[in-house]
Amino acid sequence: MAKVALITGVTGQDGSYLSEFLLGKGYEVHGIIRRSSVDYRERIAHLEGTPHFHLHYADMGDSMSLVKLVGKVQPDEIYNLAAQSHVQVSFDAPEFTADVDAVGVLRILEAVRTNHLEKTCRIYQASTSELYGKVEEVPQNENTPFHPYSPYAVAKLYGYWIIKEYREAYNMFCCSGILFNHESERRGETFVTRKITLAAARIAQGTQECLYLGNLDSLRDWGYAKDYVECMWLILQYDKPEDFVIATGVQHTVREFATLAFHHAGIELRWEGEGVDEKGIVVAVSHQPSEVSSQKSAVRIGDIVVRVSPDFYRPTDVVNLLGDPSKAKRELGWNPQKTSFEQLVELMVKHDMQKVTREHFNLAEYLEKGIVK
Ligand code: NAP
Ligand code: F7E
Questions:
Q1: Contact predicate 63/110, CB 8 Å
Q2: What is the pLDDT of residues 335-345, one digit of tens each?
């Protein structure tokens, strides 16, 4: 019998990769979607209509929908990935963030108990390095004290503890993966990495003049999302329910990410100034490989292509994340270095160079046909 998995957050970056991964392992995959005025679900569009992949309407804010769905699907494994996952947005929508990211976890646990599946259903909770927040030690491991530093992190801390509580109180197999930042070609476009790779591609191809960023000194341990979803699965296959730090063990600043991303887009940068006055200035430009873009670069030496805007500063910012993945490496046999930082930046820029080229092409075609004026 094929195992049955239920994924909340199936339309997100991780949900889409995890669906592909579990389908590849022969699972019957069920995902939760919520009603939206736009029905096109970009990241999972290629999976819709394929056998063994099923979508259901429910919402993390609606207990009854979750209880009914868990009862209908009878999952062997639940991957609770649904969240309002943007840290900066959590300052603007703290109550919604708490409802989905904190109480939502409780709703999933109770849906499992209500359906009497607590002995058979394993639950993975998408926890986060943001729990370490205003960090108390570097690097961070499973024993590092938490100091959440945003409404998002405080909500996720509740999720972490309620998972632990249900594990101890009801002997449930429920675990948290404490995942450090992981990125990809499918990353949301307002997270810093994707914002940079898309902007570098657009600036290189002349459709954007300048990229505005916040704190360039912030340090992150960035991995590749496709590698990280394997770990979510490994955590649920482990013989005991335990929590794991998932990270690469390597950190870089936002500035370093930007320098490398622009390099892969054919633009070399130097940095000048400090704080809000810091600027990224073009010092060299190379032509793009022809399969990526047929156009000559639109930027010139001396152009300022990155500026700092305080609009992207946060009331409290987490600035020094570095994970220690030793436990996952030792106990799960997971390779934290499968995709290096350099490979990650390159693959994201390559993808976005092609995306921007397609945007150009579509725009030219639409203009020609009079669809866009
Ligand atoms: P993401 O791309 O923002 O996806 C979030 C998913 O949650 C989307 O499918 C979204 O649905 C869904 N969702 C939000 N509110 C919902 C609600 N009320 N009911 C049902 N679904 C809802 O996030 P991600 O990067 O894939 O991250 C997956 C999980 O890992 C999240 O819990 C995140 O907090 C956590 N995490 C992420 C990272 C990282 O670096 N990516 C690191 C640590 C932890 P819509 O498409 O309808 O909006
Ligand atoms: O910010 C700085 C910003 O928004 C990274 C989520 O997946 O990972 C993610 O949260 C850093 C921060 O991700 C801009 O201040 C500078 O220090 O890409 P981010 P995040 O906040 O680390 C964790 C592990 C999660 O759990 C979350 O769900 O970059 N930064 N300039 C900027 N950030 C953004 N977004 N935009 C800027 O312009």
A1: yes
A2: 999 999 999 99
The model's pLDDT over 243-301, given as tens digits with 9 standing for 90+, comes to 999 999 999 999 999 999 999 999 999 999 999 999 999 999 996 654 445 555 689 99
Name the closest ligand to CA 44: 1
Atom of ligand 2 minimally distant from the CA of 128: 26
Determine the residue of 192, 198, 245, 252 to mutate for testing ligand 2's pocket, defined as the one with the most ligand atoms within 8 A of the Cβ atom: 192
Residue with tokens 């019957």: 28
CA 137 to centroid of ligand 2, rounded, Å: 20
Q: Ligand 2 atom 21: the closest Cα is on which residue?
A: 87
88 Cα–ligand 2 center, Å? 8
Token digits for 190?
A: 């307002």
The sign of the dihedral angle between the CA atoms of 201, 339, 85, 40 is: positive
Query: Is the CB of residue 301 less than 8 Å from the CB of residue 285?
Result: yes
> With a 6 A CB cut-off, is 192 part of the ligand 2 pocket?
yes
Q: Return the closest-CA partner of residue 9 out of 66, 50, 64.
A: 66
Ligand 1 is surrounded, with C-beta below 6 A, by 8-15, 32, 34, 36, 59-61, 81-85, 100, 126, 128, 179, 181-182, 188
Residue 364, pLDDT above cutoff 80: no
Rounded mean pLDDT, 202-213: 97
Give CA–CA dist 257/218, Å, rounded. Answer: 11
Cβ atoms of residues 51 and 27 within 8 Å: no
What is the H or E stretch that residue 200 is in? helix 192-204
Q: Is 17 a residue of the active site?
A: no
Structure tokens given for 254: 């936002």
Whether 128 is catalytic: yes
Query: Of 28, 130, 183, 185, which is the active-site residue?
Result: 130
Write the pLDDT tens digit of every residue in 153-185: 999 999 999 999 999 999 999 999 999 999 999
Q: Is 71 left (phi over 0), alpha (psi -120 to 50) or beta?
A: alpha
Alpha-carbon distance values, 343 to 184, 185, 251, 329 (Å): 11, 12, 14, 20
